[in-house]
Amino acid sequence: MIPAAFEYYRPKDMAGVLSLLEEHGDDARVMAGGHSLIPMMKLRMAEVPHLIDLQDVGGMTGIEVGTDTIRIGAMVTQAAIIDHAALAVAAPILREASLQIADPQVRYMGTVGGNVANGDPGNDMPGLMQCLDATFVVVGPEGERSIPARDFYEAAYMTAREDDEVLTAVTLPTPKGGHAYEKQKRKIGDYATAAAAVQIVKEAGACASASIAMTNLSDTPVFSEAAGAALVGSTLDEAALNAAVAAMLNDIDPSEDNRGPVAFKKHVAGVILRRAVTRAWSRA
Amino acid sequence: MKDEVTREERVDNLKGMGCSRKRVEDARFTQGKGNYVDDLKLDGMLFGDFVRSPYAHARIKSIDTAAALEVPGVLAVLTAADLEPLGLHWMPTLAGDKQMVLADGKVLFQGQEVAFVVAEDRFAAADGIELVEVDYEDLPVLVDPFEALTSDVVLREDLVAEDGTLPDGAHGPRKHANHIFTWEAGDKAPTAEVIANAEVVAEESMYYHRTHPCPLETCGCVASMDKVNGKLTLWGTFQAPHAIRTIVSLISGLEEHNIRVISPDIGGGFGNKVGAYPGYVCSVVASIVTGKPVKWIEDRMDNLMTTAFARDYHMTGKISATKEGKITGLQCHVTADHGGFDACADPTKFPAGFMNICTGSYDIPTAYLEVDGVYTNKAPGGVSYRCSFRVTEAVYFIERMIEVLAIKLDMDAAELRRINFIRKEQFPYTAALGWEYDSGDYHTAWDKALKAVDYDGLRAEQAQRVADFKAGKTRKLMGIGLSFFTEIVGAGPVKNCDILGLGMFDSCEIRIHPTGSAIARLGTISQGQGHATTFAQILASEIGLPADSITIEEGDTDTAPYGLGTYGSRSTPVAGAATAMAGRKIRAKAQMIAAYLLEVHDDDVEFDVDRFVVKGAPERFKTMKDIAFAAYNQAIPGIEPGLEAVSYYDPPNMTYPFGAYVCVMDIDVDTGVPEIRRFYALDDCGTRINPMIIEGQVHGGLTEALAVALGQEIAYDDMGNCKTGTLMDFFLPTAWEVPNYETDFTVTPSPHHPIGAKGVGESPHVGGVPCFSNAVQDAFRPFGNTHTNMPHDHWRIWKTANALGLHG
Fold first, then answer.
1. CB proximity under 8 Å: A 190-209 to B
2. Average pLDDT estimate for B299-308
C-alpha cells in the first residue's frame, strides 16, 4: 500500500495548474480531496508521476445560491454542502445525498469536483448531478467550456474532460418539486448496491415532470429519461411506478460483485427507485 | 491505634474484585500514547517486505532479483535459496505441519511469501518488490475441499513419498494426498444405531464460512541481532511471546537465553497473532545477515489475505430425539479446509480444537464427531477468532441443529432447549464426547433471559407480523434469534493440553516493595483485554494492597515468568488462577510476619481485607503495608527477608462459561436488509472481576459476532483469487452498524478455580454468531426455511426470500 514515487506540486493559481498539465500531459493528474486517487495510487493501480494538489488554488470553494441557478465550486467539500443553510433550502437533495456519502471524516476531505470528475461509477454525485441536469465547468488551455452532466460520462473513469482540463465548478438550475436520494449500501463507507436520485414536480395532483438517475448500476451513472417520462402525467399510481421501474431496468446494466449478482441488483434497483419516487412525490 | 476508616471503606479503597475499576491502560490509549510495534524506531533500522504470489497455485521457474537490487536503498532480496543453507526455508507450524517461509519451488495460495526485500525504508522496499521478476507456471487450482479430496492434483508433493505412498501426518494416517488428518471423538457405532432407531431425526448440512480476525493493528515485528553479545531481541505482535521465544530458539539454533521476545502494546489479536509467520523468520534472518534491526509490518491486504484466517468448516449433522423432543443422539462430520499448510493454532492433541464440545449445553447421551482436514489453495490458518479452539464452530453447529430439530418436531425452539439442558444437579457433568463441564445453572439463566425479553410476547408479535405480511400490510418479517452456549476455555490442563510440547500452564510472579506497593508479572499478554486493570484487582483482594499500588507487567520474556500467552479466554482461568495462588503465597508469609510483629502465634492472626488481625481482638492488627515494610527492615527469626512469590498454575480442568442470548430482528424482504431491534445477552462467567470490563468485552464480542453472521467473509473465486482483501469488501462494523446491547448476568462460580472465575472475552462471540444467524433464519421459518448459510449479507437474505417465493 505504498505508491510509486511521484512529484508533488501545489500551485497557487489555475494558470500554474494548467501549465503543469501542459508540461506533463497524461503523466500528471490534479487532486482535490484525494479520496479516490490516493488509494488507487497506493494500490499502484494508478501511476501518477506528477501530482498537482488544487488546495492552494483559490476561487473554487464558494457556494452561490441564486434565484434560478446554483453554483458550487469544485473544491467544496461534502461537509460544506451539508452545512450550507441556503443550499439545504434551495436544493435539499444535495444535503440528503451528501449525508449518505461515506462517513464524516471522508466528507470533510471529499469534494464535489473530485467526486464528479473522477468518473468512478460508485460515486454518488455524478448520478445526482445528472438528475439535477447540472453543468460542469472545465477550464483548459483553450479557456473555459461547459459540459452537461448528462453528456459527461463515457465509461468507468472515462469522461468528456480532456487530460489538460480541470473541472472548476458545477452549476445547476434550482431544483423544483419534491426530492429523494435513496441508497442501499452494505455498511457505512460503502458504495451503493443501488441508489436513485429523484426530483419530481407535481401540478394539479399529477406529475408534471420527473427526473431520475441511478448510481453504481452500470459503468457510468444512468440518467433514465424514459423512467422519468413514464411518470409524467400520472398520479404515481401503481401502473406508472411499474412503468418507470421497467424503463429504468432497461437502462441499467449492473455487473456482479461482492454486493451480489445481477438479478439481485436489478431487483434492489427497482425497490430503491420505487421508494425514492414515493418519497419525492410525498414532498412534491 | 484506633481505626477511623470503616471496613467497607477499606474494601472500597482496594478496588479489588467486583469493582468496576476504570482501565489503567486507557490513559495512554486514548491519548495516542500507546507503544505499538510500528512505533518502535531503532538506529539504522531497515525495513523488509514481501514479494507475494499473484497465483493460488503455480510452480516457480525462476526469480530474478537483479533489477530490484538496483533500486536505491534496497540492500538485499532473500529467496528460499538463501534460507535453505540455514534450514530456514521451511518452518514448523503449531499444528505439526511445516510451512514454507519463502516459496520453495512453488506457491500454494495467493499472497504467499515469495521473496523478502530488505531496504533502508519501506518506500524503497515497496519499489524493490515491483522489480523482482518471478516466472510462474500456472498449476490447476483447488479451492473446494471436497474436490481436493478426489483430485489428482497434488498440492503438497513434500508429503508424498517417492513411491507414491502417503506417510502418516502429525495426526495419523492420511486418506489422500490432499488429506491432512481424520480426528474422531465419541462412539461411532452406538451413535449410528441410536439415530437409526430414533423416533425423530433431523439432518442438516451447513457451511461455516471462512473469515478473519482482522485486528485493528496488523501483524509485525522488529528483529535486532546484536552481533557483539550474540543476543537477538524480537519485538512483535505476539499473543504468546514465551512460546515464540522457544520456537525461534528451536528453529534458529540460537540458545534460548540469547533470545529476548517482547510484545509491546498490541492492538487486538483475536487469534490472528498466535502463530508464527514467515515475516518473523525473514526479519530475524535479515537482521543476522545485515547486523541491523529489521522491521516488518503487514499492510491491511497482507493481513486479510495471508495471516491466519478462521473457520472454513463444512459441517453435516444428524440429531435424533423422541417425539416429545428429548434428544437421544448427535452425529457430526466436518470437512475442514485448512488451506495450503496446516497452520491451525490448537493444542497439539486437538487438530480440530475443541470441536468435540459440539453437544453444547444439552444432555445428549450418545454422540460421535469426525473431522477431516484438507489442503486447498487458500491461505493457511484456522485460528480461534475470538473463541476457544473451534468452539464457535461447535456452538454454531449445535445451536443450528437444535433449531432444525425444533422445526422437524414443530416445537418452540426455546422449549426444546429447556427440556434438553444439562440440569444443575448433573454438574460436574461428563459429556458424551468426553469433556467434564465444571458447573452450570442453565435453566435459571434461560428463564431469566426469556422473561427479560418477554419471549411469549415476542412470539405473539411475530405471529401477527406473519399474518400482516401474508395480508400484504407489511414487507418486513420479524426474526427471534435464540442461542444458549457453553464455552470451554482456559486451556488447559498440562496432561492433555500442550502446544509443540509446551504445557499450557501459566504463571505469575509478585514482588512486594518495602513501602507496600507491588509489581506482578505474568506469562500472558493483553491485546486490549485490560489485564493491567483486572489482574491488579485479583491481587488487591488476595493480598490487601490497593490495585492502584500494583503494577502489572507482561510480554517481556527476559522479565516475565514463562507462560503460554493470551488466547482462547485462557488468561483469567489460568494466569488469573496463578495470580491468586501467588497472592496466597504472599499472604501466607505475611501472616507469619504479622504474627511475629503482634507477638502471637501464626494461627492466632487472620486476614481481614487489608490486614492481619489478632483473632478476637480486631484492634490489634498489622496492615499489609506495615507487613511489607517489616519484611524488608526486620530480622525475623526463621523467615527470609523480602516478600515475593511465584506460582505456575496447571489448571485441573477447563472452565465452562455459558450464556443465554436473544436477538430480535426485522428483515426487509425486498432488499435483504436486516435491522437489529434488540439484543439481550446474559453471560455467566463465574466470579466477576470487573463488571465494566466484562460489559465491554461482551459488546466487543457481540460486534464481531454480528460481523461474522451478517457479512464478514474471506471469499475466493474459482482461480483462488481472494475477493475480500480490503475493508471495502471485508465487513468490519462501525458504531453505525452496531445495535444497543442489553447485558445481564448470573453467577455460577467455577468450583476448581481459586477465585471461581471462568473467562468472558470470547463468550459473546461464541454465543452471538448463532444468535444473529438464528434470528435471520427464524424470520423465514414460517415460510418453510430450514437452514441457510452465513454470512447473511443483503443479497443472501434476499436470495432466501426469493427462493421461498416471497417476491411474488
1. 190-191, 193
2. 96
Chain A closest-CA separation from residue B421 CA (Å): 37
pLDDT computed for residue B599 by the predictor: 97
Pick the CATH number of B401-490+654-803 from 3.30.365.10, 2.60.40.420, 3.40.800.20, 3.40.390.10: 3.30.365.10
Q: Identify the domain containing residue A42 by its residue range.
A: 7-53
Give the residue-averaged pLDDT of B686-704: 97
A192 neighbourhood in chain B, CB within 8 Å: none
User: Which residues make Cβ contacts (< 8 Å) with residue B229, sequence separation at least 6?
Assistant: none
B34/B38 Cα distance (integer angstroms): 11
The three cell numbers locating residue B516? 507496600
A192 and A250 share one domain: yes
- Strand A135-140, strand A166-173: pairing: antiparallel
- Write the DSSP assignment of B449-502 as a string of letters: HHHHTTHHHHHHHHHHHHHHHHTTS-SEEEEEEEEEEE--BS---TTT-EETTE
CATH number belonging to the domain at B37-141+218-266+273-306, selected among 3.40.50.2000, 3.30.420.40, 2.40.128.90, 3.90.1170.50: 3.90.1170.50
Q: pLDDT tens across B345-403, in order?
A: 888 889 999 999 999 999 999 999 999 999 999 999 999 999 999 999 999 999 999 99
Nearest CA in chain B to A102: B728
Last-in-domain residue among A173, A190, A225: A173
Distance CA A114, CA A100 (A): 17
Mean pLDDT for all residues in chain B = 96
Chain A residues whose CB is inside 8 A of the B802 CB are 267
Q: B127 vs A259: CB contact, 8 Å cut-off?
A: no
pLDDT score of B2 more than 60: no
Q: Which three cell numbers stand for residue A76?
A: 467544496
The tens digit of pLDDT for each residue in B72-86 reads 999 999 999 999 999
CATH number at residue A223: 3.30.390.50
Q: Which residues of B are catalytic?
A: 239, 386-387, 762
- pLDDT attached to residue B3: 55
CB atoms within 10 A of CB B307: 26
* CATH classification number, B7-34+506-649, choose in 3.40.50.620, 3.40.190.120, 3.30.365.10, 2.40.50.140: 3.30.365.10
* Low-confidence residues of chain A: pLDDT under 70: none
Residue B794 with chain A: CB contacts under 8 Å:
184, 186, 193, 259-260, 264, 268
Task: Judge: B123–A5 Cβ closer than 8 Å, yes or no.
Answer: yes
pLDDT digits (tens, 9 = 90+) for B633-667: 999 999 999 999 999 999 999 999 999 999 999 99
Environment class of B404 (CB within 10 Å of its CB; exposed 0-12, middle 13-18, buried 19+): buried
Q: Is there a single domain that holds both residue A108 and residue A89?
A: yes
- For range B179-206, the mean pLDDT: 98
- pLDDT of res. B448: 98
DSSP H stretches of helix in A60-183: 78-83, 85-90, 92-98, 104-109, 112-117, 125-131, 149-152
Q: What is the CA radius of gyration of chain B?
A: 28
Contacts of B799 in chain A (CB under 8 A): 264
State how many domains chain A has: 3
Domain residue ranges of chain B, discontinuous segments joined by +: 7-34+506-649, 37-141+218-266+273-306, 401-490+654-803
Give the ipTM of the model, two decimals please.
Answer: 0.96
Q: Which amino acid is at B322?
A: T
Q: Is the CB of A1 inside 8 Å of chain B's CB atoms?
A: yes
Of the residues A173, A191, A211, the one at which a domain ends? A173
Please answer whether residues A99 and A180 qualify as being in contact, where contact means their C-beta atoms are separated by less than 8 angstroms. Answer: no
